[in-house]
């Protein structure tokens, strides 16, 4: 079989299936192993115990899936075409900001199903072959594989950047036993720019190409199960699920492309919902509306925890204060604690504002 021709066909089939780009990487990721181990040893993975559990297996595709000779790396754009401007939402203290990737349906199923279809198409031409598909679902170094496949370069915020599409896309892989010729990596184009580092609300990008997840708002609002550390709550602002600041500020995202995928279209008005509105959702409402969404996995309790922080940072309007008071005695201790912090935050701000008023001479 002409594997060069097959690789060319695979790239075209990937585009036809809705992917923005596809490339091929070999399985030698040894260059990334020292950085991975240093990151784990520093404890930057926080409560993501699975990151440490798999260790170097993450950097060794042929150990994860025995027989793997090549990895097909694909990217799929996720920015919905009709959504409220992200900066506008972040600047609206009463609005709830949700990461752009989570405004539509859960990407795991969408990307995985397309990868399966791509694998099926390959099988029609190549015959039976060994493969396994992944998308953020196993110990896979997706950015490293995508970099080696020529799909872009690792930015200083550690995400993949493409000259043609910025960084707002999902990554997925097909591990295969087909000996496909690998693509060449592309040159990095971040230069001396540090906008992503400077823009991070919690300074989680502790050095270029190095993120302390324990400080990252995406980790704090999604991965962390318990209480959000007090020091980070004011910095979170109105970001209630994930954070995009490091991407929004990146000059390369002026080339970010809207997704034509209907499943990634905004659902339930999540791009312009208020904190008060979302905080009023009962558990059954949350489960109904968030079914099929990536947000569903954090559950109603952590959803309320995040919203309580957002409300604590919001303007002290009657509606905001009433919303917080409505859950002051919530059955969840986690929610109660964050609501109490939010109410105390409003009280402290009112006291400061009162002290700052000029003496009217009365």
General form: elongated
What is the β-strand count? 10
How many helices in DSSP terms? Answer: 16
What is the topology, as strand order, of the major beta sheet? 1-2-7-4
Largest sheet: 4 strands, antiparallel
Radius of gyration: 22 Å
Overall mean pLDDT score? 95
H and E order: HEHHHEHEHEHEEEHEEHHEHHHHHH
State the domain count.
Answer: 2
Overall structural class, as computed from helix and strand content, comes to: alpha+beta
**Which segments are poorly predicted (pLDDT under 50) over 5 or more consecutive residues?**
none
N-end to C-end Cα span: 92 Å
Q: What are the defining features of this structure?
A:
elongated, 362 residues, 10 strands, 40% helix, epoxyqueuosine reductase activity, alpha+beta, 16 helices, two-stranded parallel ribbon, 2 domains, four-stranded antiparallel sheet
Topology:
Blueprint: H1 3-16, E1 21-25, H2 33-41, H3 49-54, H4 61-64, E2 70-77, H5 86-90, E3 97-98, H6 107-126, E4 131-134, H7 142-148, E5 153-154, E6 160-161, E7 169-176, H8 195-199, E8 205-207, E9 210-211, H9 217-223, H10 233-236, E10 239-241, H11 245-248, H12 275-279, H13 283-290, H14 299-313, H15 318-326, H16 333-356
Parallel strand pairs: 3-10
Antiparallel strand pairs: 1-2, 2-7, 4-7, 5-6, 8-9
Helix pairs in contact: 1-6, 14-16
């Amino acid at each position: 079989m002409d594997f060069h021709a097959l690789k060319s066909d695979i790239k075209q089939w990937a585009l036809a299936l809705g992917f923005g780009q596809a490339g091929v990487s070999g399985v030698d990721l040894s260059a990334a192993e020292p950085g991975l181990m240093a990151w784990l040893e520093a404890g930057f993975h926080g409560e993501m115990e699975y990151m440490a559990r798999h260790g170097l297996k993450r950097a060794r595709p042929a150990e994860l899936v025995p027989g793997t000779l090549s990895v097909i790396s694909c990217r799929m754009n996720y920015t919905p075409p009709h959504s409220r401007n992200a900066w506008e939402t972040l600047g609206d203290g009463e609005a709830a900001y949700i990461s752009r990737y989570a405004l539509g349906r859960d990407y795991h199923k969408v990307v995985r199903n397309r990868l399966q279809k791509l694998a099926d198409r390959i099988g029609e031409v190549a015959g039976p072959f060994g493969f396994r598909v992944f998308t953020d679902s196993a110990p896979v170094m997706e950015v490293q594989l995508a970099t080696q496949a020529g799909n872009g370069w690792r930015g200083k915020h550690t995400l993949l950047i493409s000259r043609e599409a910025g960084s707002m896309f999902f990554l997925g892989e097909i591990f295969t036993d087909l000996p496909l010729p690998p693509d060449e990596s592309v040159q990095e184009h971040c230069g001396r720019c540090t906008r992503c580092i400077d823009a991070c609300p919690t300074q989680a990008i502790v050095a270029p190409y190095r993120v302390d997840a324990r400080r990252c708002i995406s980790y704090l609002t999604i991965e962390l199960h318990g209480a959000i550390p007090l020091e980070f709550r004011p910095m979170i602002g109105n970001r209630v699920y994930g954070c995009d600041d490091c991407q929004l500020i990146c000059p390369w995202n002026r080339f970010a492309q809207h997704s034509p995928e209907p499943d990634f279209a905004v659902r339930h008005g999540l791009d312009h919902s208020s904190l008060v509105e979302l905080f009023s959702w009962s558990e059954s409402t949350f489960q109904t509306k968030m079914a099929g969404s990536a947000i569903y996995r954090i559950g109603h309790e952590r959803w309320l925890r995040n919203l309580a922080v957002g409300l604590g940072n919001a303007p002290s309007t009657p509606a905001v204060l009433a919303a917080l008071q409505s859950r002051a005695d919530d059955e969840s201790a986690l929610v109660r604690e964050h609501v109490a912090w939010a109410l105390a935050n409003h009280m402290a701000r009112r006291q400061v504002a009162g002290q700052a008023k000029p003496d009217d001479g009365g």
